[in-house]
Amino acid sequence: MNVESFFPENIKTPLKNDPPGEWMPTLPDKCIRLSSGFPAPTLVPVEQLKAAVISLLEEEQDLPLHYVGSPKVAKLKEQIQEMLLEYNIRVSGDELLITSGACQAIDLVARILIDDSTIIVIEAPTYMEALEVFQNYTKHFISIPIDEHGLQTKVLEEVLEERKKKGLTLPRLLYTIPTFQNPTGTTMSTERRKHVMKLAANYNFLILEDDAYRELFFDKPSIPLKAMEREGRVLYVGSLSKVVTTGMRIGWVAATPEFITALAWFKKDLGHPFAQATMASFLENTDMETRLNFLRDTYKAKCEVLISALERYLPKSVSWYIPEGGYFVWLNIAGVDTSQLLTEALSEGVSYVPGEYFFLNRQDGKEFLRLSFSYANQQDIVEGIQKLGNVIK
Ligand SMILES: Cc1ncc(COP(=O)(O)O)c(C=O)c1O
User: Fold this and answer.
1) What's a BP term from Gene Ontology annotated to this protein (predicted)?
2) What is the pTM of this model?
3) How many C-beta atoms lie closer than 10 Å to residue 350's C-beta?
């Protein structure tokens, strides 16, 4: 049987791309994981989640185990609304959709806004999973470079102006991670945030703001794009993956009711009432401010250790941006193909993600790599960077 012949064109085309998750290195035993962009096992609140499950089932019996029924599902929505208020994002119930992590939120936004003729603006580099999602829907991208102040909005303006002059189609959507970006760790300056909002209004595009790391600031939070607008151009995506746990898959989209209706229309997985109710129960019984402050201090300390190890063990030809929060440090190693170097690094016992996977045009990322300080402990971070230094030299 010719299986491929059954696939329609909109499925056949993306299946020709590289397979999802190709970027993830296969790690040897005892490898120091500077590639893993998720929390160390010690930072997962296992005991508190165990207590949340027990108290939920004692209180509600079978209710959270049905399609619908647990009042805690609605409670979680209120809790997320309250969290958003802290960032000056005021949304009503019909402006918020809980999703299966930020990943599903991105996929749903792509589903309702993108067809194979849509042009999307992405940051270069950008979060590779989002890139994979968008490539499932369109081939038309405009990549705008990032520097230490985030998206280069002047370059974006020039590109848009040029397209307008030439009568070319303008993009419908910009995907941006303005705060503690994955993979560069950079944060968009306030000036550029204002500029990008102005461009969105002038050139009539929407913004998909991915704010997965916003809580993990070292010293001060930044203002989300969503909090800077009234018009409804920003579809705001968030997640509890980085501050509670990745496996419960709790994320959201905050947007105007018309967008939320469309997103909910196509969200056919019926949600995860048990995970959502457990999360609500966890949040009810957790002092999140204390937890967040603990995580901020922990990641800040790990990042400082990583940066001083880079200064100590890496040759002068290597450069990086200093992050103000999040999980990542982005390295530029002039003259080195970081994908080739990975084999050596893995055999030395340290992992990272080669830069090429974060670019649409892979070649642009050859001399970069992403390090994460979220998973490894401080001692391992130092040892890992020492190993990386040996391999680069
Ligand atoms: C920028 C960004 N957005 C979204 C996600 C995915 O978050 P979730 O686990 O909520 O799907 C990640 C995870 O690495 C990320 O780095």
Assistant:
1) alpha-amino acid metabolic process
2) 0.97
3) 28
